[in-house]
Every structure is written in C-alpha cells, then in structure tokens.
Specification:
By secondary structure, the protein is α/β, with parallel strands linked by helices. Strands 1, 2, 3, 4, 5, 6, 7, 8, 9 and 10 form a ten-stranded mixed beta sheet that branches. Helix 3 links the parallel strand 1 and strand 2. It contains twelve helices and ten strands.
C-alpha cells in the first residue's frame, strides 16, 4: 500500500463514496484528516464512509473534514498511525493493545497513537461452502481458506484461533484475499471457506447466501478457553439462528472495534471528533447497521490503551467514568 496521503489524493475522485468532502475555496483553513479503514467488502470500509460523512456534515463548519480510505485494516492502520501517515484509524482493541505493548505481529512498541473510543463489537465469522460440511475449525484442514487480508485483524485472530484448535497455517491452503474478493472466489468455487471479522449481520455474508449454499463454522468452548488464557479480550458471541441461512445459532467469539488517532492530534480536534461520533451515532446507523452500536455507554468497553486528552475531556463532560489505567 502506498502511503495514506497518496491514497487520499486518489480517493478524491470518488469522494461521494468515501464521504470525503471536496475542498472548498477556503480549503486552506480546513483541517483535512485521513481515516484509514479496511478492505472493500468489509465492515470497516463501509462504516468508515458513513462515519466520515457524519463528521463532515457536522464539523466542516468548525474547520474539520475527514476522508475515509481503504487499507489493510487493523494491523496496517496501527502502523500508519504510528508512522504519521494517517490521522485516524479503525482497529480491533486486541491489535491496538499488541501495538502499544510491542506484541506480535508488531516488531516493537508502536505507541504513537491514542484512543478515542469503541465503535462496535467485532464478531469473528467463518463461512464455508456447504459441500465441505465444515462446522468445526478441524473440518478446515486441507481446505482452501481465505484467512484475512495481509495486515488485518482478521488474519491475526485466524492464526490465534487455529493455533488454539491445534491447526497450523501449513495445515490449510491459506489465501490472503480481501473480504470482497474472498466472497467472489467462494461464488466461483475457487476457495472453500472464508474468515472475516465483521458486524452482525454482515452484508457481504447476506449477499453470499443468495448464490451459495453455506455452512457455518463454530468455535468450541475449549478453543475459546485456550485463546483467553493469553488473550482475555475475547468473549463468547452467539449469532442467532436465521441471521443468515443458519438454522441454528453460530457459536463464535468477539472483541471490540475502536477508533484511534495519531498521538499529536490537537486536543480540540480530538474532542470535537469524539463528541460528534457519539452524539450523532444514530445518523451513522442510517447508512450502516453497525452504527447502532456507537453508544456512549459502551465507549470504553475493552479499551486498554491510553485515551487522547480530547476524548477524556468529552467523557468527563458527559460524566463517564474513565479508568485510571487508560488516562493519558
């Protein structure tokens, strides 16, 4: 991926899709922020466009616009924020924690970022072609599996979960497609299963059910227990029967998708972004279902990395208790 700065220049050609506000004659007085999201077909990409459109609607008059651009998702976004190549980024809380503390897959502490707040619960979902009869992780051995795009939180969780099930990446035919490409490959019979961290219901899976008979893979209690021994961020999540073409609930795991920013973003800008996100979350929800989860009461759930002072200012204003462990 080229730098986010370059991508933003390219993205202006599709401003209406991404939510990027084209420069006005007074553009030199407007702060044009870059938010990195995920690959097309994933929740981050679509939700990011909705969030950017809402910010632009309410904050342009205050001199702030946000451009939402595609990326490799969580891991890459942490690197882009740390390197100053993006202003805002969406990521899973477990990936952000690993970046802050220098855990895998990061080579060292990547802590030139701060936290604004939780967006929605991330749900790990594995769909397989029905003919595989795959309902357990063990059923995927030897299969062609899209494990998540390079640099994504999906790819990180896939490896962790498969390890908890005693499955190595060399036990499957791992593919590194983005979510949209993985769905297309399943339709065309080129892969057997696809892993994704998405909101529920995921539009890409709903669309897939229209053309492909699917089987849904469950995460066992034993696998979750082994995962939580090292990564306590994860909890059980049950996708109700009938959400897709599933006749029974799908037992899987979840963590949190959160919004992060570069550490040197000024306090007023961070305050305004946080305030608009939680006060106009219902507007985001009209464009993407995951926006329904943008709520002040869950804004700090599962957050383990320090908050931006601007975000702290907003939470204190709204009488939200901020744990001392995440104070800047």
């Amino acid at each position: 991926m080229h730098t986010a700065k370059i991508i933003l220049l390219l993205s202006t050609a599709v401003a209406g899709i991404t939510g990027f506000a084209c420069p006005s004659p007074a553009a030199d007085k407007v702060q044009q922020l870059i938010m990195v999201t995920g690959s097309s077909g994933g929740t981050y990409y679509a939700l990011g466009g909705a969030m950017a459109a809402t910010w632009n609607k309410h904050l342009k008059s205050k001199g702030i616009t946000v451009g939402s651009v595609a990326s490799g998702a969580s891991v890459e976004n942490m690197n882009l924020l740390h390197n100053g190549e993006a202003d805002l980024g969406m990521a899973m809380n477990n990936v952000a924690d690993a970046a802050w503390n220098g855990g895998a897959p990061f080579p060292g502490k990547m802590n030139k970022f701060l936290t604004l707040g939780v967006i929605y619960p991330e749900v790990y979902q594995i769909t397989a072609v029905a003919s595989t009869k795959a309902t357990r992780l063990a059923d995927l051995k030897g299969k062609r599996v899209a494990v998540g795009p390079v640099g994504s939180g999906t790819a990180v969780i896939t490896e962790l979960l498969f390890k908890a099930a005693g499955i190595g990446m060399d036990d499957i035919q791992a593919q590194r497609d983005g979510f949209g490409n993985a769905a297309a490959k399943m339709r065309d019979g080129h892969i057997d299963a696809s892993c994704a961290v998405l909101s529920v219901p995921a539009s890409s899976i709903l669309e897939l059910t229209a053309s492909v008979d699917l089987s849904y893979v469950n995460i066992s209690d034993a696998e979750l227990t082994r995962l939580r021994e090292s990564y306590p961020f994860f909890t059980r999540f049950s996708i109700p029967a009938g959400t897709y073409s599933n006749t029974a609930s799908i037992e899987t795991v979840t963590c949190q998708a959160a919004l992060y920013c570069r550490a040197d973003l000024d306090e007023e800008t961070a305050y305004l972004l946080t305030k608009a996100l939680y006060e106009y979350g219902s507007e985001v929800a009209t464009a993407h279902a995951a926006g329904k989860s943008i709520r002040l009461k869950t804004a700090l759930d599962g957050i383990t990395t320090p908050l931006h002072p601007g975000a702290v200012r907003y939470y204190k204003e709204k009488h939200v208790a901020v744990p001392a462990s995440i104070m800047p």
